[in-house]
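P.,

For your records, the input lines for the assembly:
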Amino acid sequence: DAMVIQNPRYQVTQFGKPVTLSCSQTLNHNVMYWYQQKSSQAPKLLFHYYDKDFNNEADTPDNFQSRRPNTSFCFLDIRSPGLGDAAMYLCATSRVVNEQFFGPGTRLTVL
Amino acid sequence: AQSVTQLGSHVSVSEGALVLLRCNYSSSVPPYLFWYVQYPNQGLQLLLKYTTGATLVKGINGFEAEFKKSETSFHLTKPSAHMSDAAEYFCALLWGGFKTIFGAGTRLFVKA
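Structure tokens returned:
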């Protein structure tokens, strides 16, 4: 089945230790998104790629970076995680002007 | 400005009762609207969508929603709740071709 895959599902890191979250898709969608979701809140968009074009949300901290080496893969890098960065991170894909398909998420814990 | 408002952060119904989750939107252009469901520790899953055409939209798991332009509403309903419907529900608006504006979410509780 075509799908969005996120690895790992659970990630524990230490305060200030860089961490990378991974997303891959078999849907061949040209748009990929990263969201941060904290408990009992709606997902908050961090950035998205339209093909290779990167679009950062104005309020996304510089601590968060992303890479999209090809159509199928997208990475979220958190350079120096703080306690406030503990959250669920959701990857999603879409075609333009269409609904988004979400991965299962990566739950990040910062110790 | 585009926005989505979900009325009620928590809704509780008995098993077998009608489910009604309310959503109002604001959009300067004809809206594309969605309902997503999220189960604990999972991603969001599309329940249904409205783009153009028929204003009554049917989705998965017996849910449906009606687009009412005059009321700027897109309420989600299900005639008979099941225990497995307990989850978080998000109403959403597509804007600018790429961005999805989510409502704050409504947690549905289903009592036995």
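Two observations worth noting. Chain A has a mean pLDDT of 95. Chain A touches chain B at residues 4, 6, 31, 40-43, 45, 48, 50, 55, 88, 90, 92, 94, 96-105, 107 (CB under 8 Å).

Regards
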